[in-house]
Design brief:
Blueprint: E1 4-10, E2 15-18, E3 24-32, E4 41-48, H1 49-58, E5 64-77, E6 83-96, H2 102-108, E7 110-111, E8 114-115, H3 123-134
Length: 138
């Protein structure tokens, strides 16, 4: 069975292309951390169709993703005539772990250019809120 699951951050913004027949492909590289800092592995990923469109919409450099797919080989002849080979993951599922860029969340924390007011609750209010949460039926 050819199956792989990786979790890591995009090394740069996804590169998407749309073909004349309407098919869409999105290429990106995920940095996967190892046990040590020097153990980082860079994995190329290809996503097709609606998955590719979602990747182009929700992913950018630094986004944390979980990718499930299969390993695929790719080979081609280089300009110098030598044969080149690489492995990539053909994504069957891409989970966007953090879809909000840090810049956007920082902007949302401001109201009319000023920091958003923080709400302070008394101890009695905190207990009341916790009691309300306990009665939620799920």
């Amino acid at each position: 069975m050819n199956s792989i699951n990786i979790s890591g951050r995009l090394t740069k913004d996804p590169e998407c292309r749309e073909f004349e027949d309407g098919k869409v492909v999105c290429d990106f590289t995920v940095a996967v951390n190892g046990y040590k800092k020097d153990d980082t592995v860079f994995v190329k990923v290809k996503a097709w169709g609606n998955r590719a469109k979602s990747c182009s919409k929700f992913c950018k450099k630094g986004s944390l993703v979980n990718v499930t797919g299969s390993l695929r080989p790719n080979s081609w002849k280089a300009k110098d005539g030598s044969m080149r080979r690489e492995m990539f993951v053909l994504a069957s599922d891409v989970e966007f772990v953090n879809t909000k860029p840090e810049e956007e969340s920082a902007k949302k924390e401001k109201v009319n250019g000023n920091p958003a007011p923080s709400i302070e609750y008394s101890e009695e209010e905190k207990v009341e809120l916790e009691d309300q949460l306990e009665t939620v039926p799920f």
